[in-house]
Amino acid sequence: MTEQAGWIELAPSLRGVSLSHRIRAGQVPLLMVHGIGPGTNGDVNFSPLIARLSRRCAIHLIDLAGFGRSDRLPAPPFFDVPFWLDQIEQAIVQIIRMHQRTPLLIGNSVGGALSLRIAARRKDLPHIVAIGAPASAEATPELRAFWSVPQDADALAAAMRPMTGAALTPDADVVESRLAAFRSDAYRDYFATMLADPSHCLSQAILPEHEWQRVATPVTLLHGDRDRACPADTTIALQGRLEQADLMLLSGCGHNVMSERPDETANLIEYLAGKIE
Fold first, then answer.
1. Are 91 and 99 in contact (CB under 8 A)?
2. Which domains does the chain show, CATH number per domain?
3. What are phi and psi of 36, to 5 degrees?
4. In this predicted structure, what is the pLDDT of residue 2?
5. What is the pTM of this model?
6. In the predicted model, what is the mean pLDDT of residues 85-94?
């Protein structure tokens, strides 16, 4: 365990794969699970919220295997949903040991779908917030473009534009930070292999029909009504199938909910943390 810039870095591993699990001290534990994309990790996804939520919450930030500070998986399938679910479960067990309570689970995009899968396995979670979570195995053209290996900064910027409701051009420094991982040819091959079949990947990640009735945990689905990557209509349908699910549909918002609407997102999480506390 090490400490750096306000973060405590644990050093967990799972089946021989070294993983990243970082903590900022606080009261109500949050476990934050990022989505999938070029240059994605916990910091990239949740940076619009971390400073504000740190006032009250103990933030637990993990990087899924293959992303950020976590090591890559040694062999395909690199889009390994069972491994990632076990990684999330391992983090939950660690949080229970540290805080004597289960965390509020916050999942972004595919991380939201994985969080719903966890809720079908565990009955002790106080609440789940699934942000822009996919609910269909049909990969849209916008998601396919975003899940492809970026050839250069311009190509990545073009793929990122449809992720926002207004199709905004991302800041150049954000694009460059996401490109950093692809300086390695080995990682380019890894990423391409991981996401070679986007629809198959989605079919593995989303909550399957036979698990809908197993989700007894209260869920809030937070979604942009202009989400081109994971269209809102499928999430609206999912909300009706879950036992305790609220849906917050944000007008004019795309897939990047936390960067487009950080205040609404943080307000929701702070409200839920207050109820749990």
1. no
2. 2-276 (3.40.50.1820)
3. -115, 135
4. 64
5. 0.96
6. 98
